[in-house]
Write a structure and sequence with these properties.
Layout (H helix, E strand, L loop, with lengths): L1 H18 L4 E8 L2 E9 L7 E9 L2 E10 L6 E6 L4 E4 L5 E6 L2 E4 L26 E9 L9 E5 L13
């Protein structure tokens, strides 16, 4: 009888461990006292589908927002800073959102920022390649084949050129 009880705990523990969500985060520090993290954790599926959340911490204050779940559509998220000083995260198909640090809060996206522009009319050197009045800072992206087990990474603008994301739905 004791063997069965012990065996049941071992099996139950193994199943619980296998199904327990593992959280993976990528973080960037674009300015002093500002930390932006994108966290993913698996959905219950056989594919690489993720629940996602962005967290912003500035001078000890923290805000976070659940993002649309990735069921295979997500191609990464680009991070920008707008000429107004607001930060913008562009998600491609699910659009973009903005936040400020003083005060730390999610705000409305500046008018026209999420609309891809005609590349012929590319602006100044500081402009992002695809969006007006934005400076590209980097890209959050999934790394499914990383040998070290890293599942998400942030690559700065100096490491990765601006990634063209799919149009908003």
């Amino acid at each position: 009888m004791k063997k069965w009880v012990l065996m049941s705990f071992v099996v139950l523990g193994g199943v619980t461990w296998a199904l327990w969500p593992r959280f993976y985060s990528a973080t960037t520090v674009p300015e002093a006292n500002l930390e932006i993290s994108l966290t993913i954790w698996p959905m219950q599926s056989i594919h690489s589908d993720w629940h996602r959340e962005v967290s912003i911490e500035y001078d000890g204050a923290r805000i976070s927002r659940r993002l649309f779940e990735d069921t295979g559509w997500w191609r990464g998220s680009n991070l920008y800073v707008h000429t107004s000083g607001a930060y913008v995260i562009h998600e491609g198909q699910s659009g973009c959102f903005a936040f400020t640090t003083e005060p730390i809060e999610f705000v409305g996206v500046p008018n026209g920022v999420c609309t891809k522009r005609n590349l012929v009319n590319h602006g100044g050197e500081q402009d992002a390649r695809f969006y007006r009045d934005l400076e590209y800072l980097g890209h959050f992206h999934e790394t499914p084949r990383d040998p070290g087990g890293v599942r998400i990474r942030f690559s700065s603008a100096s490491q990765t050129p601006e990634v063209e994301l799919p149009e908003m739905l």
